[in-house]
Amino acid sequence: RVSAQKAASDAATLDELRAAVLAFEGCALKKSASNTVFGSGNPAAEILLVGEAPDADEDRKGVPFAGAAGKLLDAMLRSIGQSRETVYLTNILPWRPPGNRQPTADELMVCEPFVRRLIELVGPRIVVCLGGSAAKILMEQDKGITRLRGTWHEMSFSDSLQSDVTAMFHPSYLLKTPEQKKIAWQDLRSIIKKMRS
Ligand code: URA
Questions:
Q1: What residue ranges line ligand 1, CB within 6 angstroms?
Q2: Closest ligand 1 atom to the C-alpha of 130?
Q3: What is the pLDDT of residues 78-125, one digit of tens each?
Q4: Ligand 1: distance of its center to the CA of 155 in Å?
C-alpha cells in the first residue's frame, strides 16, 4: 500500500494530487464516506483556508463548506474582499468521520501529507486555519484554538515556500457560539492587514 507521504510527493499538479487522494486506501474514513472532498477555488490563490473535515452537506456534494458553516464562511470571505473564486478552500481530512464525530489524531496524521502537498502546489502567501485541528497541525503547536487564534507564524512548506499562517474560530463553532463572532471579525481584520503588508 502506498503511503500518503509517497502518493502526495509524487503528485506534480493539483489534478494529480486529487487523483492520488481518490486512489488512497490508507484511511478507514473513506469506507464510510459517500464522497471524497478534495478542495476548491483558485489554484493560484494568495489565501488558502483549511478546515477540519467534511460534514453531512459536504459529504453529499463533494465540495468543502457546502452547508450552513459555508454560508457564514462566504460572509467572512466577503468581509476581506475575497470569495470562493479568489481563495482556495480545503480541509485536513478529505472524508467525513461517521456521524461527524471528532477525527482521531491518527486519522488527521495519516492524511496530513496530502494537505501539506496541496499547500505547496497552490503556493499561498497566507494560510488561514479554521479551528483547532488545522491550527495544531499546520502551526505545529500543541495549544488549543483559543490560544492560537489571532497569532501569526511563518511556516515553511517547502524549500521555496514560506507562508504566513494564522488561525481563527471555525465557522461551525461560531454558528453555535455567536458571541465569539466579534473575535472572529477581529481576526479577519488582522488578515486584511497582513494582505496589505
Ligand atoms: N467543517 C469543516 O471543517 N469543513 C467543511 O468543509 C465543512 C464543515
A1: 51-55, 58, 64-65, 69, 91, 172
A2: 3
A3: 999 999 999 999 999 999 999 999 999 999 999 999 999 999 999 999
A4: 23
Is the CATH number 3.40.470.10 carried by domain 4-196? yes
For the purposes of burial, counting CB atoms within 10 Å of the CB of 33, is it exposed (0-12), middle (13-18) or buried (19 or more)?
buried
Q: Are 20 and 8 in contact (CB under 8 A)?
A: yes
What number does the ligand 1 atom closest to the CA of 57 have? 7
Q: Sketch the domain layout of the chain as residue ranges.
A: 4-196
Which of 65, 133, 174 has most ligand 1 atoms within 8 Å of its beta carbon, as the pocket-test mutant? 65
Whole-Å CA distances, 124 to 5, 47, 72, 158: 21, 5, 22, 12
Residue pLDDT, tens place only, 31-86: 999 999 999 999 999 999 999 999 999 999 999 999 999 999 999 999 999 999 99
The ipTM (two decimal places) reads 0.91
